Each structure stands twice: as C-alpha cells, then as structure tokens.
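Annotated sample (chain length 233).
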Amino acid sequence: MSEYILKTNHVFKSFKKTRAVKDLSMSVRKNSVYGLLGPNGAGKSTLLKMIAGIITPDSGEILFSDHPWTRKDLLNIGSLIESPPLYENLTAFENLKVRATLMGIPVNNCDDVLQKLDLTDAKNKKASDFSLGMKQRLGIALALLNHPKLLVLDEPTNGLDPFGIEELRRMLREFAASGMSVIVSSHILSEVAQVADDIGIIYNGSLLYQDAIDTGENLEQLFMDIVRKEREA
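Output written by the structure step:
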C-alpha cells in the first residue's frame, strides 16, 4: 500500500487560451496536512476543483487511494472551495440535512459536525443571518458530513476572527491525528507554517516546490526565493 492518499500526475487544465494548471504532479501523504501555497491567481483553486470533481483535467491523471480517481471517490472526499454552498433561506441544520440526504449519510452526522464546529447554538438559525465567519464554519461542517478520508479546504481562514483561526488550526491537527488527510490552500504563509506537515508552492499554474516542512526553515524566505527565481526565468 502506498503512503499517499492522493497523487496528481502531469495534470493540465486550460480555460480558453489561459493555461491555469501546467504539468502538475503532487503527492499528499496519508494522515497529514498538506499546505498548498501560492499568490492569488496561481492555480490553487483550479487544482483543488479538479481533486474535488468540480471540473475535469484536460490531461494527466489523478490517483486516490492508489487507484485512478472516479466520482465514487467523492464519498470519501470533503471539500470547501471558494464560497460555502449554502441555502440562505434554510437553517444551519437544514443545510446539513439536505446534503446528508443527497449523499445518503445518516442525519445524526449533522449534529456531530455542528458540535465539532461550535455551531450547536446556531442550529436553528437561518444561514442568511450568519456572519461571514459562521458561514465559513458551516461550509467546513458540510465538508465533514461524510467523515472523509481527504478534506480539501481552499483559503479556509477567510472571514474567521483570530479565535476562529486558532480553533481551525487545532482542528486540522486533530483531523490528521485521527487518520484524515487534509489539503489546505492559502496565500498566508504564517498560517500554513503552523499546521502543515508538507508544503507545495504553486505559481503561474506550476508546482515549483514540494517537500516536508523543516521547522528551522524560514518559509517566507523559501517561498520568495522560489517564486522570484521563476519570475526572473
């Protein structure tokens, strides 16, 4: 058995004449947090959308648990990419119940994730009345409903206050310790440095660097050196 939950091999994706992802190969270890770093527009969201099945690669291969990715694998993948997919006129619990029903997941899972995301008191509150941070937490709760093997989070700290960010860090480490793998994208290097086991640096659609985090290394300097070198080239 491979030590990796996910691999992409030479993946390409274009939109009209724009090449969003170029020949990208990455490897995500089981039971780890993988930090995907890159400036806005680097290709992070496009890559994560392919992993989450929202869009399909033009070419290349995605492997999940040692086999070619299929839509059945979405039962084992949870994702929050860009804005949380909420029904504003429904309560927090109703949003979760709709997703659970569509996926054939026990409704009991709804209360479990509400508690995990500290949203139990807002269970019967409409999503339209939520703050941006609460909507983000509800989006993460939706991604956790199926108890995924792989959790994909795109800029998950958006809208969270400092306490929410600290709590998210703790949860990400707990997820990895419990056997879940997490891919978290961000352009905030300091956030990723505090939670990730491995990092990948993406710029202009290409993965320029991938390795385990060295605790003694200056991640900001590493990032700037790698991106600057690519820009100069």
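Annotation: Helices lie at 44-51, 92-103, 108-116, 132-144, 162-177, 189-195, 219-232.
Annotation: The domain at 4-83+151-232 is CATH 3.40.50.300 (Rossmann fold).
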